[in-house]
Amino acid sequence: MKAAVIVFPGSNADRDAAVAVEQSIGAPPKMVWHRDTELPKVDFIVVPGGFSYGDYLRCGAMAAHSPIMREIKRAADKGTRVLGICNGFQIITEAGLLPGVLLRNKDLRFICKDVYLRVEQTKSDFTRRYKSGEVIRIPVAHAEGNFFADDATLQAIEDKGQVAFRYASAAGDVSDETNLNGSRGNIAGIFNEKRTVLGLMPHPERMSDPVLGGADGRKMFDGLVEALS
Amino acid sequence: MKARVHITLKNGVLDPQGKAVENALHGLGFGGVSDVRQGKFIEMKLKAGDAAAAKKEVEEMCRSLLANTVIENYAVEVID
Known about the structure:
Helix content of chain B: 25-40%
Strand order of the largest sheet of chain B: 2-1-3
CATH architecture of chain B: 2-Layer Sandwich
Structural class of chain B: alpha+beta
Shape of chain B: elongated
Oligomer: heterodimer
CATH topology of chain A: Rossmann fold
CATH class of chain A: Alpha Beta
Number of strands of chain B: 3
Shape of chain A: globular
Largest sheet of chain A: 9 strands, mixed
CATH superfamily of chain A: Class I glutamine amidotransferase (GATase) domain
Order of helices and strands of chain B: EHEHE
Distance between the termini of chain B: 5 Å
Strand content of chain A: 15-25%
Largest interface: A-B, 18 and 12 residues
């Protein structure tokens, strides 16, 4: 299995993602600059977190039109697995790879802490190593993670099993109290219809080794390796 | 030729920034203020030949980059 991590001006979680990917694959991923017009042949692409283009205009809007994004869309259409983390989630929604959009957090604060997520959908290469309903602890670090989609889109996402994770309590309860940032349906992460593209606000790569305080995020990368190797 | 673009949040889309501005205005004693919504204003120069072509071009810019039509509306005004 081969992987690539995309690097935009302002990315800051690209190296974290590379370390987590290398740990699971056993080889370093290719680091691909946003102005590149060709993708190396890979099975898995990470669009990492950060503040691409200084979050100008809207978070992820400029990066969504980078030269490399055309190639990423083409690869995603052919089934290459794409993972957008935090700013990467914002970028791939702006690029139209996933429905909806990420708005400013309801309380306007930048939220940086470990949160509990309930795993909603295990039938994907990203989540196959988790159990349905399992509660995992993963850190978030964002000011614009408030997932929004109109009623019809939200219903379609729910009906097609595209919700990957919801903000929950340690016991797995999902409620307004556990809704970190105002996201509709407490949604922390969603898939595309084929479940080959995943976007999420929390950072699994930052919880992928016990030395980081936990390894709940590692199962995501291990699952991908298991499925794609 | 110049164009001005107003980008506003669609009805029903939560606007926490507008809400915070509204609360600050209430704090300053502007008690009659309600429904504050914050948007964007973009101004640009264009080489387009006529106003109709300019408007068409800027609307295309809105759809492809300037606005996210999932949550935002846009209005284009062309000035000779």
